[in-house]
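Example record used in the benchmark description.
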Amino acid sequence: MVRVLLLLCLFNVGLFKKFVPRYNHGRRVPVICYVDKYTHTHPAPYDYDVSDIPTRYCSHINYAFADIDARSSELKDTMGTFRNFTSLKERSPQLRVMLSVGGWSTQSGYISAIASEKRSRQTFVKSVIETLRAYDFDGLDIFWLFPGSAEWGGRKEDKENYVSLVKEIREAMSREDRQDLLLTVGVPLSPYILDKGYDIYQLNRYVDWMNAIGYELRGKWLNQTDVHSPIVPRSIDPPELKKNKR
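Model output (structure tokens):
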């Protein structure tokens, strides 16, 4: 069975019936919060420091997003805030803090290049393990937007390469002393984008769960003003969403 969580916004709610996370503040349903690494740089009163995060509402916090060095294929703590995030576990011991890579910048294009070659995958995987270990992260989340899409820096081989990358990360995690490291991926709800770059059933073999990206279901391509992230299906939904309605 494919394990999927639904992301509704930047602070996200995970909906999953049968998955029971190891540390979830006593909840059966995990609540996954993506926190932007730049929030503390905003001018007052819009700045938002790590210490302001209401950890009582989250079972998992994902650092969004770690930078990738395009030349070395290694992770970078550009903002110097990795340790600040994982230190949240000192005040909330049951909290799981994960490192997320990808997102809405050119970083997703870097993942395409990394996944395309065995050597760069090995370098990236080594960097991932070293970073998780050094900063006490509880796992890795890959938020690749969007494999197989040229406009996002992708290539047609991404779908197959993505599985290879995730498989090698999982294998490296299994060799660690910590056997509770998590591996998750973000997947879109658009059938067109999904089919182009995500081999769901193969990815599911190696990840703990998938985060369904439940936004950007409306946009300028519809030629009408509408809700950006609708929660329930409606009569005006595009055909591809209607036919996948459950």
